[in-house]
Structures are given as structure tokens and as C-alpha cells.
Design a protein that fits this description.
heterodimer; A: about 220 residues; alpha/beta; Rossmann fold; 5-stranded parallel sheet; 4-stranded antiparallel sheet; 9 strands; globular; B: about 750 residues; alpha+beta; 4 domains; 6-stranded mixed sheet; 24 helices; 16 strands; elongated
């Protein structure tokens, strides 16, 4: 098994604000092995979500390359590159957003089944994942019938049901109260450690960041 | 920044939504105003027509020639009260006007037709005869009549003239009203569909603005004030939009007016006079009321702003309503009763369809794979959340299907019927005072002449007691006599007949009745029918029932041999195929026999062609309005579908995040959108077929006295399905373009209210 999970080299990203280019980050490089976790912190607008999007192929960097497992991406935009990223997201990269991770027309269990099916995993263990995240009794409920914390647990169940190599979590507890947030992140770290996958966590919570094996503050990057 | 400007700021962010709402109001107003303006104008024109000719009589020349100004001068010199009446047909769409002489009409007193006082001649349709004559000189077609007061007796008339009812054709009142009632019903249906569309666009806007409403309430703005401002906003927008809508509606009515005029003139023999169709105020007020009712009728909108969802309430209520509506249509007492029944069925279908489609979408999905389950569930959400535009498109498609089937059936049937009726190549009118028998003897003497027969038309009273034991009661009907019964009529399609019906008719052993008389009096083949011919009463069996479209009167077809001496023919003509002889030679021969050089000979092929042209025009309005409604409903679903899909864009993007390629996501969207619109077409099909049946088998017999065969046109169904699928494809393509952009924040999904299930 390859220990190296993710490597990014020389990433640059600029946005346009009116006619002025605004640099989000320049020449950013990082590396993550299996079982490791990385916390991305920084003020709002520092580029945490943008970096996560680049690392899973939802956005293109200005320059630089990204390698996930054996797949290397040099900023190409052709259909093949898109298909390779799609395949990685489908089977290897689980993404958790702050909210709205579930299809509203499906029950919690059906959401988990859908995600597992897309990843090529069996649907049999889906209910177990909900049980493990202590929302088994809510399996038949719809997203609008449960609390925000229960929705985020279901989102984690979906990610773990696909058995990913890498989890990208973009402020997954940002909309939860402190107690619920601690509960959810506790389960996230626990399962990540148990299954040996990589985790990159974008957060404002410094205390949460300290629980990761690495920490990158995008607000205090050197100019080059 | 005031509360009102804060509310309006939504449209600064979403100008297209404001444009869509404005467009809906304008188009709804245009369609409804167009139809109602046409019907108002026609109704006023028919009333003018009836009022103008009511109870009047005219003088005609005994020699059959048209009256002239010289006749008028001669009669006035003889001291007779005569008024010239010059009808001028101006080019479309200006309409017909009537020139009357105010001085000549003075002897009529207050009974003068057209209220012929000088003051009344300052507007259409009545004007001074000098102006009308000038129009004729400039090339317009004119028709002069000489009217006399109703109290003038026949013996007071000079010998070269005779009195005749001043009527332009058969009684049109009932038929005209029925036709206009149909148009009114179409107008109401169009109004209903457009009101649904306005409501759907408005409610979607409300859903998108509910966060703003909640914020305003949190900031201390009372709900009643927000509601008042919303009402003000809508009143303002409606007032601005209805004016161009009404103007466009009138323009539409003018565009279609020419065809409409021809319909009235040729189908019902009712001239379309140039009259004003009414002002702007009434349609504007009606439209403002309809729009406000459509947008604010749901109490939840006013009382529970944050809770608006756009769903159709109390769907189960549709079941008893459907039963009631179907029963009313199955057993209609009157035309009004029937239309109420149709309206109830439409209301019920509107309530039931979204829920039914939603259930069907999810049916059997539980055992399916996760992706299929998601597709089905998502589709069910779309059916429920897009209920109003879905129902509007369903109604529009059903209406188009029904109207198309009705029109096509009518055209096919009518053309076949017309071809049978005008089987002979030529038609020669027997002049007044001429003896038809002389013409018949002349034709019998010719060798090489093709098939021919003599037609004699007159009146009869059909006694009802022979059938229904109603002593003393009778109904008026026309007599249509043919002799000899030959190949020119034996090709007619009979709706029902006994064996060897034509032979029995030719032998005088029975009569045939038209569908109108058969329906009204309940005659079936072999039933006895008692009727008068002149002073003679006959009772013969009905041997056949024939179709007779386009007029309301009952009619009995008899062979000429049974007509007694006392029978007075109102009209006589010869239908003939010249065969080996030139028609000019036959014409000369008949002219010599009847001693009249001014024979009226018509080429039936040109009449057939003219009639076909008239019927093409007849349905121009209904076709145009239904197609416009369909386009409007299709556009509405396109806009609504696109906007609603946009509110769920984040969830479709989740598929992309979860590893589906853009192409696969686009495929899913295409499936959803096309299934949505395709299902609407499928759901519209039974409603359309039912509506067709209602039109041909219920509305037509009640309104016109005759029915049409029920026919379906699967080819057209496929066209409608293709059109609906195209709308779905367009939604999918728009969404694909939208999803091709950057990744939005997931919070957007909650703000736009797309997270419903």
C-alpha cells in the first residue's frame, strides 16, 4: 500500500475583484500520508474552502499540481482529467460540507445507501454506519425531520460508508452548538483513526485544529 | 432604505423574475382580452343585426332582378313609404356598414330600422346613404334593399313588386349565442390557465423572498404591513402590465377579426357589423381582480408569509368534485350545466394530477437501487412543488389536443359531407314565377345529359303525437324534396338507416330526417313520423337519418313525387352534371324554357372551394388561441422549471461532488426534466380525449343540434409529447449551463428554499 496519500506542489490561486487580481494563496505545497490529519485554519476568505475544492478537483488551481494516490493532476481541463477526478471523488475522497450534505428527497438511510452505491460499496452495511453514529433509530427520517447535528452525523455516515482514502471536511461543525460539535468531531476523529484514512479539516476552531496531526494556517503563510 | 424598497430589492437581484411575472400578466391579459373583445364585438354585432332586421319587410321585384335606385324613385312617386337600405362590405377588418336615408325613413315614424333619426347616423354601423354610396363607388361591394313599414299590406304593393321578409338568412339567434358561448368558455379556460401561471410565478417569487420576510419581521415590521406592501406591489405591477396587455389583446382581436367575420357571415349567415367592442376600463378591472385573486386567494400567503410553499391544498377534495363533474357532463340538462360540469372536472384534475403523478413517480421505487430511488423521489418532489405550472401545461395540452381533434374531425367530416351535398357539377336556380316542371321536362328531353335532380325547399309542421302522444303539439321543420332520387344523393353517408333506405325513399314509402330533427324528437329508423305537406297530412316511416352540419333547423327529406299540389316551394333549383353537353347549351335551353336570360348558375366546385376556405377561417381563432395558450404554458413551465431546478442546484451539484461526471449529472437532469414534462403530456392525454368527447358528443348536440364522430389523432399526440419533451430538454440544457459555473456555497440551498421534499 502506498503511504503517500496527497501531495500538492506550488499551488497558486487568484480571484478577480473588479479589474484587480486578488491572490488567495501563492506557491502553496503540502503533503499528507495515510492516517494523518491536517487542519486548515485562517480568517474568512483566506482560501480554506478554495483549497479543499482544489484538492478534490471541484476547482482548478491557477498553477501547480496535485497528486492523490497514484493520480497526478497538472491543471489540465480536458474531459479525461475531469473523469479521473470524478472517479477519485466517487470512490476515494469523501467531502463533508458545513450543511446541506444530504438529498432532501431521500431518508437518512437512503442517502447513505446512495453514497455507498456510487462508491461501489455494498448497501448492506449502511444501517450499521447510522447505528455507529447513534442515529440508527432515525434511519427512515428525512433530512428536514432531524436536527442539524443529526444531519451532520448522517453526512459522516455517508462518507464512511464509501470507505474513502481521504476525507475533506469544510467546517463540518460550523453550524452546530458546541456540545453537538464536539460529539460530531469526536466521532469523525475516532472513525478516521480506526479506518486509517487521511483527513483535511477546514475550521475556525483552534482547539479542534490542535487535535489534527498537522496544522496549516492560511492566514499566516509566507508571501512566497 | 424603506421597508418597501427593501422588499423591492429582491427584483433588483432577480430582474428576470420580475420580467417573467410582468410577461405573464401581459400575456394573460392579451389572450383573455383578445377572446373577450372578439366575442363582445360579435355579440354586439349580432344584436345590431337582429335589431336592424327585426320585424322588417322589404319589396322585391317580381321578375327576380335586383332593386335599384330607380325602383326607389318610382315607388316613392307612387306614394309608398319606402326606405333604401344599402349594406356595404368594406375590406376586413373594418366590417360591414349600413347606409340609410334619414329623410326617406321619416314615414316610418319611430319604427324606422336602425333608429334612423339624423342624430343616429353619426357612427357605425349606420351612416348616411350618401357616404355608403360613395364607398360603393370606390369599389366596396354594396347590396341595396328597399324596406317598407310592417303595416304595409300585400295589396298596397304595385304589381311588379311583392313583399318579402327582410331577413338575411335562417334564424341565427340561438346558433350565434351557442357559438359565442363556446368562445366565452374558451376565454374562461384561457383565463383560468393564465391565472394559474401568474400565480405559480408569483408564488415561486414569494418562496425565494421568504427569508427577507422573516428578517423584516425580526426587525419589527408587522406582518400586516409586509402583506399590505406586497399587495401594493402587485397592484402597481398589474396596473402597469394590463394596459399593454389589453392593447395587445385588441390587436390580436383585430388580427383574427377578419376570419371571425367570415365565420359569422358564412357559417351563420349573420353579418358582422362594425361596432365597438367596449372600453379599456372593464377588462382592466377584471384582470387586476383576477391577478390579485390568483396571487392572494390562498390565505396562507397573507396570513403565514414564511410558510408559503406553492403546493396545492386539499388534493383529496378533488375526488368528490371529479365525480360530481363527470356526472354533470354525463347527464347534461342545459349547456350552462354542462360547462359547470366541465369546469368541475378541470378543477378536480388540477387538484389530483400533481399528487397522482407524485405517487406514480415513487411507485415501485422502494425495491430499486439507490440512484433510481433518488431519481423517483426527486421527480415526486418536482411534481408536487411545480404543481401549478404542471397543471397549467396539462390543461393547455389537453385543450390543444381536444380542439385539434374537434377541428380536424369537423373539417374531415364537413368536407366529405359537402362533397356529397355538392355532388353535381352545377346548380341552377329556378327563377321566381318560373315553372320548375318546364325545366324538368326540358332536361328529360336532352340526350347525353348526366345525372340531375330537382330540389324543392319548403316548410312543414311535424306532429309530435305520433311519437310521443302529445296531442296537438307540433314543431316547425324544413322540407327538402328531391326528384328523382338518383346517384347524386345515393352516395350520402347516413348516420342510421333501415335496409334499402334509398329505394324506400324513392318509392315514397318513407322519409329521411336530419340529425337535428332526429335528436330533438327522438326519431330512429322505422319510427313513424307525421307531418304536413301543404294542406295534406302524411304519416310515413323514417327510413334514414342523415348528417346536416352548420345550421340548427330540423329537416325532412322526401321524394318530389309525394309533394301535393298545395305544397308551396320557397325555393327551387336543379342540380346537374352536364355529361356530354356543354353547360352553356343547357343554360340557353333553360333560359328559353323559362323566358329569363338572367339565370343564376353556380359552379359547385367553386362553392366547395369557398366553403372549405370559410371553414379554414372558422377555426383560425380557436387554433390561434389554443396554440398561444400552449406556448404560454410551455414557456411558463420552462421558466418555473428552470427557476425551481436552480433552487435545488446545490443538490444536483452534490452528485458532482460525489463523483458523477458533469455529463452524468447533466444526464440525470435531462432525465428528470424530460420525464417531468413528458409525464405532463401523458397526463394531459386522457383529459384531452375526454374533452374531445365532451365537445363532439355533448356540447355540439346541445349547442348546435348535431354531433360529430369521435376521432382521435395519435400522430398529434406524439407531436404534443415531442413538444413537452423539448420543453424538458430546454430546462435541462439551461441547468447544465448553470451547473457548469463555479461551486456555490451550500448555504444557498436553504436560502432559496430548495431543500423541500
Amino acid at each position: 500500500m502506498v503511504a503517500s496519500l496527497l501531495t500538492a506542489r506550488g499551488l497558486n490561486k487568484q480571484f478577480r475583484s473588479g479589474n484587480q487580481p486578488v491572490s488567495v494563496f501563492r506557491n502553496l505545497s503540502l503533503h499528507l500520508d495515510r492516517g494523518e490529519s491536517l487542519a486548515l485554519t485562517g480568517r474568512s476568505g483566506s482560501g480554506k474552502s478554495t483549497l479543499l475544492n482544489i484538492l478534490c478537483g471541484l476547482e482548478k488551481p491557477g498553477t501547480g499540481s496535485v497528486q492523490v494516490l497514484d493520480e497526478v493532476f497538472e491543471g489540465d481541463t480536458d474531459r479525461q482529467t475531469e473523469a479521473r477526478w470524478a472517479s477519485l471523488r466517487r470512490q476515494q475522497i469523501g467531502v463533508v460540507f458545513q450543511e446541506a450534505n444530504l438529498m432532501p428527497a431521500l431518508s437518512l438511510l437512503d442517502n447513505v445507501r446512495l453514497r455507498a452505491r456510487l462508491a461501489g460499496q455494498s448497501e448492506d452495511g449502511c444501517r450499521d454506519w447510522l447505528e455507529r453514529l447513534r442515529i440508527g433509530e432515525l434511519a427512515g427520517r428525512y433530512p428536514d425531520q432531524v436536527s442539524g447535528g443529526q444531519r451532520q452525523r448522517a453526512a459522516l455516515a455517508m462518507v464512511f460508508a464509501m470507505k474513502p482514502a481521504l476525507i475533506l471536511a469544510d467546517e463540518p461543525t460550523g453550524s452546530l452548538d458546541r456540545h453537538t460539535a464536539e460529539d460530531v468531531t469526536g466521532q469523525l476523529f475516532d472513525l478516521q483513526a480506526r479506518h486509517g484514512c487521511g483527513l483535511i479539516l477546514a475550521t475556525h476552531d483552534v482547539e479542534l485544529a490542535t487535535r489534527c496531526s498537522h496544522h496549516l494556517d492560511l492566514g499566516h503563510l509566507p508571501e512566497n | 432604505m424603506t421597508v418597501f424598497s427593501a422588499l423591492l430589492s429582491h427584483y433588483r437581484r432577480h430582474p428576470l423574475q420580475l420580467l417573467a411575472l410582468a410577461l405573464m400578466i401581459v400575456l394573460a391579459t392579451m389572450l383573455w382580452t383578445g377572446v373577450s373583445h372578439l366575442t363582445d364585438r360579435a355579440r354586439a354585432s349580432l344584436a345590431q343585426s337582429e335589431q336592424a332586421i327585426a320585424g322588417q319587410q322589404q319589396l322585391v321585384r317580381e321578375d327576380g332582378q335586383a332593386v335599384s335606385v330607380q325602383d326607389f324613385a318610382d315607388l316613392r312617386r307612387q306614394g309608398l313609404c319606402v326606405m333604401p337600405w344599402l349594406e356595404v362590405q368594406r375590406p376586413s377588418p373594418e366590417g360591414r356598414v349600413i347606409g340609410v336615408d334619414p329623410f326617406a325613413s321619416a314615414c316610418f315614424g319611430n319604427e324606422a330600422p336602425g333608429q334612423a333619426g339624423v342624430d343616429a347616423l353619426n357612427g357605425e354601423p349606420f351612416l348616411d346613404i350618401a357616404e355608403a354610396a360613395e364607398m360603393v363607388r370606390q369599389g366596396s361591394e354594396g347590396d341595396l334593399s328597399l324596406l317598407v313599414p310592417v303595416d304595409v299590406e300585400a295589396d298596397a304593393v304595385p304589381s311588379d313588386y311583392r313583399l318579402k321578409d327582410f331577413s338575411m338568412g335562417p334564424a341565427t339567434g340561438e346558433l350565434g349565442e351557442s357559438f359565442l358561448l363556446n368562445l366565452d368558455a374558451l376565454g374562461v379556460l384561457v383565463l383560468l390557465i393564465t391565472a394559474l401561471l401568474v400565480r405559480s410565478v408569483y408564488q415561486l417569487g414569494l418562496v425565494q423572498r421568504r427569508e427577507s420576510f422573516t428578517l423584516l419581521r425580526r426587525f419589527g415590521v408587522p406582518a400586516a404591513r409586509v402583506q399590505g406592501l406586497l399587495l401594493t406591489e402587485m397592484v402597481g405591477l398589474t396596473c402597469v402590465c394590463v394596459i399593454p396587455g389589453i392593447w395587445l389583446g385588441r390587436w390580436l382581436a383585430e388580427m383574427l377579426g377578419a376570419g371571425f367575420g367570415q365565420v359569422l357571415e358564412n357559417l351563420f349567415d349573420a353579418p358582422l357589423y362594425a361596432v365597438d367592442g367596449g372600453g379599456f376600463a372593464m377588462p382592466a378591472m377584471i384582470m387586476v381582480a383576477v391577478v390579485l385573486l390568483a396571487c392572494f386567494a390562498d390565505q396562507r400567503v397573507l396570513m403565514r408569509l414564511p410558510g408559503v410553499t406553492g403546493s396545492v391544498p386539499a388534493w383529496w377534495f378533488g375526488i368528490p368534485v371529479l365525480g360530481l363533474g363527470l356526472a354533470m357532463v354525463a347527464w347534461p340538462f342545459t349547456l350552462g350545466w354542462l360547462f359547470v360540469g366541465i369546469a368541475l372536472v378541470f378543477v378536480a384534475v388540477g387538484l389530483l394530477t400533481p399528487r397522482l403523478l407524485s405517487y406514480v413517480a415513487q411507485w415501485g421505487a422502494e425495491g430499486a437501487g439507490a440512484i433510481t430511488l433518488w431519481q423517483r423521489r426527486e421527480l415526486a418532489v418536482l411534481f408536487r412543488r411545480l404543481a401549478l405550472p404542471v397543471v397549467a401545461l396539462q390543461f393547455a395540452v389537453a385543450m390543444v389536443l381536444a380542439i385539434q381533434a374537434l377541428v380536424t374531425t369537423f373539417e374531415d367530416t364537413f368536407e366529405r359531407w359537402l362533397a356529397q351535398r355538392l355532388e353535381a357539377e352545377f346548380y341552377v336556380e329556378v327563377p321566381v314565377q318560373a315553372a320548375a316542371e318546364d325545366g324538368v321536362r326540358y332536361l328529360e328531353s336532352l340526350s347525353g345529359l348526366g345525372d340531375w335532380h330537382l330540389v324543392q325547399r319548403g316548410a312543414t309542421q311535424v306532429r309530435q303525437e305520433t311519437r310521443r302522444d302529445r296531442a296537438g303539439s307540433s314543431v316547425a321543420a324544413d322540407v327538402f324534396s328531391i326528384s328523382p332520387i338518383g346517384p347524386l344523393v345515393m352516395g350520402w353517408t347516413l348516420l342510421d338507416a333501415v335496409p334499402d333506405a334509398w329505394d324506400k325513399l324513392a318509392a315514397g314509402q318513407g322519409v329521411m330526417v336530419n340529425e337535428q330533427l332526429a335528436r330533438r324528437q327522438g326519431y330512429r329508423p322505422a319510427d313513424p313520423i307525421g307531418f304536413t305537406l301543404g294542406e295534406q297530412f302524411l304519416e310515413l316511416p323514417v327510413v334514414g337519418v342523415y348528417a346536416d352540419y352548420g345550421r340548427p333547423e330540423g329537416e325532412i327529406l322526401v321524394v318530389g313525387q309525394i309533394l301535393p299540389e298545395t305544397f308551396t316551394a320557397r325555393f327551387q333549383s336543379l342540380s346537374l352534371n352536364p355529361g356530354a353537353l356543354p353547360i352553356a347549351e343547357i343554360e340557353l335551353g333553360l333560359a328559353a324554357v323559362w323566358n329569363n336570360d338572367n339565370l343564376t348558375i353556380r359552379d359547385n366546385a367553386s362553392i366547395r372551394s369557398l366553403a372549405s376556405g370559410v371553414f379554414d377561417q372558422t377555426f383560425l381563432i380557436t387554433r390561434a388561441i389554443t396554440v398561444l395558450t400552449l406556448v404560454l404554458a410551455g414557456t411558463s413551465l420552462l421558466i418555473m422549471g428552470w427557476v425551481f431546478f436552480t433552487t435545488r442546484a446545490w443538490y444536483y451539484r452534490l452528485l458532482f461532488v460525489w463523483g458523477l461526471s458533469r455529463r452524468e449529472v447533466a444526464g440525470q437532469l435531462r432525465w428528470l426534466a424530460m420525464f417531468l414534462t413528458g409525464a405532463v403530456a401523458v397526463a394531459a392525454l386522457p383529459l384531452g380525449v375526454w374533452l374531445t368527447w365532451v365537445l363532439v358528443s355533448r356540447v355540439n348536440p346541445l349547442a348546435f343540434g348535431w354531433s360529430l364522430p369521435m376521432a382521435v389523432y395519435p400522430g398529434f399526440w406524439l407531436e404534443m409529447l415531442a413538444l413537452c419533451l423539448m420543453i424538458g430538454l430546454a430546462i435541462a440544457l439551461l441547468m447544465r449551463r448553470q451547473l457548469g459555473g463555479g461551486v456555490p456555497a451550500p448555504a444557498m440551498a436553504n436560502v432559496t428554499g430548495g431543500g423541500e421534499r
